[in-house]
Amino acid sequence: MKSTANISTDPLALLALKARVNSEFLAANWSTATSICNWVGVTCGSRHHRVIALDLFRMNLSGTIPPNIGNLSFVVSLDIGGNYFHRSLPVELANLRRLKFLILSNNHFEGKISSWFGSFVKLQILDLSCNNFMGVIPVEIGNLPSLRYLYLHDNQFSSSLPSSVFNISSLVEIVLARNQLSGSIPSIPFNMSSLRRIDLSYNNLTGRIPSDMFGHLPRLNLLTLSVNLLSGPIPMNLFKCQELEQLSLSVNYLEGVIPEEIGNLTMLRILLLGRNNLKGKIPLEIGNLPNLDYLNLANNSISGHVPHAIFNSSTVRVISLSLNHLSGCLPWSTGRWLPKLERLFLDINAFSGTIPTSISNASKLTDLDLSYNSFSVYIPNDLGNLRHLKQLKLENNTLASTPSTPEISFLSSLAYCKNLTFLRFDANPLVDGELPKSIGNLCTSLQIFTASYCNIGGNIPGEIGNLSNLIRLNINNNELIGSIPTTIGRLEKLQGLYLEDNKFEGSLPSDLCRLQSLGFLYLTSNKLGGPIPACLGDIISLRELFVDSNKLIGSIPSTFTRLIDILQVNLSSNFLSKALPVDIGNWKVVTIIDFSENQLSSEIPISIGDLEDLTHLSLSGNRLYGSIPELFGGLIGLEFLDLSRNNFSGIISKSLQKLLHLEYLNVSFNRLHGEIPNGGPFASCTIQSFMGNEALCGAPRLQLPPCTSNSTKHSRKATKLIEFILLPVSSTLLILALIVFFFQSQRKHSKQQIDQENSIGLANWRRISYQELHQATNGFCESKLLGVGSFGSIYQGALSDGLNIAIKVFNLEVEGSFKSFEVECEVLRNIRHRNLVKIISSCCNVDFKALVLEFMPNGSLEKWLYSHNYCLDILHRLNIMIDVASALEYLHHGQTILVAHCDLKPSNVLLDEDMVAHLGDFGIAKLLGEEDSTVQTITLAIIGYMALEYGTQGVVSIKGDVYSFGILLIETLTRKKPTDEMFVGEMSLIHWVTESLPCALTQIVDANLLITTKE
């Protein structure tokens, strides 16, 4: 009877699991009509017919683990990895004393790991990776004498490393990467003769790497301690591990020299020591490592020459020595013995001499970066032999083109590089040649071509129009002549055209209007004449337009006011005439306007008062007249205002005292009179700002006559006039305006939100290094961590100038993180709106990618909804929803490229100090073309927020965002998540609300709203 009872517990345990799991497949297969030994994923023993293995790996199961699972007392192997199980583990698991293999990886388990894990005395594999476990790693794990593989990576474990783990002599692999472990590595002998892999990377470990740990690890194959806070020298005992194939100590604070004993590691394939404080020379022995595949010593303080043997390695694929103090010449045979070399990074050093022609023998080379050195003499024409080359960077050297031809000959040779996408050779002033017609033969995949500051002369060949995929063309600050070729209009993907500081003549070709993706047009300081083509106003993608310091004539085209997303406009120092554009107020997000030194003649349009983001306005040196508008007082962000040398008359309005950020003011040489205000920016002005006017008076410090009583009398008369005449009329108009606004506010609200969008333009873009980010976050410490997402972590930081920022650091080992980084950069680069999180900068390297974003001090909507310490009233919630709706309307309809956010949820709605909502996290967003209303995707958003067709078919459209917005709105008013446990089977958040209306409204609305309403 006892045996029968025990056997019956197995079906009951499995049926309990089936009841906790959402799976139609298990519901059909695990039937009591058949033996459990025939159930999918179940293996029974041949003797007792008890369950000995349960394998449900990657069966798309969702649910929790029931306590009954502990009754499978004969189970040896339990594998439920790659599913969607959640919550904590039941303590009854400790009853599975026969377990040898426990695999729970890639789920959503949470909670702490209890001491009962130490009871699995037969356990050989423990894999809890890629979950949400937290707390300390229990010391009892050290009591597992048979454990061979320990995988705890990609969780949220904190505290220090338990030394007991390193006393398990049977261990083969230990992986604790990407947690929040702190403290030092235990300084004890690691007596584990079988240990082959140690990975403690991406934690917060501090202190020195203990020398004791390597004395008894004869079979160690991989050691990864990268991205921690480790310091001190590289321990000598490490080089006793002669089977080591991969050594990664990068992104730490290691110091001292690289020991020459590294040559003992003859099996080493990957050596990563980048981003430390190492100094001294590169040991000769590194070049003699017979199996070396990947060498990264970048971003240290290493000096001296590079050993010739490194450039003669027949096995190496990647050499990265960037950002050091290396010097000397490259050996003449560089590349001759590098048959497998794919990527060579020597940038930002002090190399000199010639670029060896033998480098062209490295036939598999895809990336070559020699920029920011002192290379001289000629750019080899043999570079064209590198047929797989994708990126070539030679900028900031003293290189020249071969003198055998007036043309830049090496460009012709690059026509054989059919994969070339990135070509830079800026700031090589000795290049001094002409662009060859063969430039049109360069690979059509070329996207970036920059050759500024190279003394290039001659014309731009018309063949440049063949580069159909070009995104950016920089040939500014050269000696180019002739006209701008009309064939540039064929570069329909071009986003940036930089031709400033040359000697171009002729008119602006109307073919430029075909560049409908153009965002940045720089034609400053040339000899261009004729009128400005009106069709430029149809390039609605334009963000920055600089055509100043030319000989342009005619008027400013009225079509320019269609550029509603323009950020900076500079038309100064031309011969433009007639009036300022009446509808200039359409430039809602413009920050810089410079029309100075022209022949413009008109009053300042009233609509200029709508430019709330304007910081720089220069209208000096024109023939403008009329009064200075009082509306200027509403431009509260204005920092620079120059109205000098015009024909303005009247008084200086006291409304300008409101411009508290104004640093430069100049109204000199006009026909102004009356009193100069004393408040605001006027308090720091000097006489230079006001000289050359008719009858100004003011404070003695301005060396002007004091204001007389006449002016006071005049002021009183003006006051009476306003009081008895203008005020009644204004009141009537105000009442009428309010009536109109009342009926039209709902229709216009969305447009007003788009008009208030704000952005940080390229001129304000900040270059922020990894070191700055590291310092801003105290080494990416846990106290600065704001949250962890699918593709990385978000930290709060403060730059050296006091600017608070949020840093989104991408975990590059997570599949899809590279794509997520690229998508988020692409989206945030192309959109800007007051209700979207603003990007300040990015930091992108081979092994580190991060976005620097505007910091939102009030956190997320999720925090305000579900924390007991916060409460939102109904007005706040509605305002937040209106902000989110405004952001979505802009993404869907406010620009040429439609953007589907695809991940709308409370945690992605962030609140600034004024509780204004900003939509963030575009990591899985999709960009839709004008004709593509839907696309297919395999990247899914959070279940519960996505529309049915998105979740089941992978179809993405802006309609999916609208659905998600509806869910978000309901959640905001009910404070109930769509993934709440109450929603099982056919019951969902939408069904719950629908069934509760209208009779049970008070039962579903957030109780906090009822309380605040009563109060």
From TrEMBL:
<keyword id="KW-0732">Signal</keyword>
<dbReference type="GO" id="GO:0005886">
    <property type="term" value="C:plasma membrane"/>
</dbReference>
<feature type="transmembrane region" description="Helical">
    <location>
        <begin position="721"/>
        <end position="743"/>
    </location>
</feature>
<dbReference type="InterPro" id="IPR050647">
    <property type="entry name" value="Plant_LRR-RLKs"/>
</dbReference>
<keyword id="KW-0677">Repeat</keyword>
<keyword id="KW-0418">Kinase</keyword>
<keyword id="KW-0812">Transmembrane</keyword>
<protein>
    <recommendedName>
        <fullName>non-specific serine/threonine protein kinase</fullName>
        <ecNumber>2.7.11.1</ecNumber>
    </recommendedName>
</protein>
<keyword id="KW-1003">Cell membrane</keyword>
<dbReference type="Pfam" id="PF08263">
    <property type="entry name" value="LRRNT_2"/>
</dbReference>
<dbReference type="InterPro" id="IPR013210">
    <property type="entry name" value="LRR_N_plant-typ"/>
</dbReference>
<dbReference type="GO" id="GO:0005524">
    <property type="term" value="F:ATP binding"/>
</dbReference>
<dbReference type="Pfam" id="PF13855">
    <property type="entry name" value="LRR_8"/>
</dbReference>
<keyword id="KW-0325">Glycoprotein</keyword>
<dbReference type="InterPro" id="IPR001611">
    <property type="entry name" value="Leu-rich_rpt"/>
</dbReference>
<keyword id="KW-0067">ATP-binding</keyword>
<keyword id="KW-0433">Leucine-rich repeat</keyword>
<keyword id="KW-0675">Receptor</keyword>
<dbReference type="InterPro" id="IPR011009">
    <property type="entry name" value="Kinase-like_dom_sf"/>
</dbReference>
<comment type="similarity">
    <text>Belongs to the protein kinase superfamily. Ser/Thr protein kinase family.</text>
</comment>
<dbReference type="InterPro" id="IPR017441">
    <property type="entry name" value="Protein_kinase_ATP_BS"/>
</dbReference>
<keyword id="KW-0808">Transferase</keyword>
<dbReference type="InterPro" id="IPR000719">
    <property type="entry name" value="Prot_kinase_dom"/>
</dbReference>
<dbReference type="GO" id="GO:0004674">
    <property type="term" value="F:protein serine/threonine kinase activity"/>
</dbReference>
<keyword id="KW-1133">Transmembrane helix</keyword>
<keyword id="KW-0472">Membrane</keyword>
<keyword id="KW-0723">Serine/threonine-protein kinase</keyword>
<dbReference type="Pfam" id="PF07714">
    <property type="entry name" value="PK_Tyr_Ser-Thr"/>
</dbReference>
<keyword id="KW-0597">Phosphoprotein</keyword>
<dbReference type="Pfam" id="PF00560">
    <property type="entry name" value="LRR_1"/>
</dbReference>
<keyword id="KW-0547">Nucleotide-binding</keyword>
<dbReference type="InterPro" id="IPR008271">
    <property type="entry name" value="Ser/Thr_kinase_AS"/>
</dbReference>
<dbReference type="InterPro" id="IPR003591">
    <property type="entry name" value="Leu-rich_rpt_typical-subtyp"/>
</dbReference>
<feature type="domain" description="Protein kinase">
    <location>
        <begin position="780"/>
        <end position="1015"/>
    </location>
</feature>
<dbReference type="InterPro" id="IPR032675">
    <property type="entry name" value="LRR_dom_sf"/>
</dbReference>
<dbReference type="InterPro" id="IPR001245">
    <property type="entry name" value="Ser-Thr/Tyr_kinase_cat_dom"/>
</dbReference>
<feature type="binding site">
    <location>
        <position position="808"/>
    </location>
    <ligand>
        <name>ATP</name>
    </ligand>
</feature>
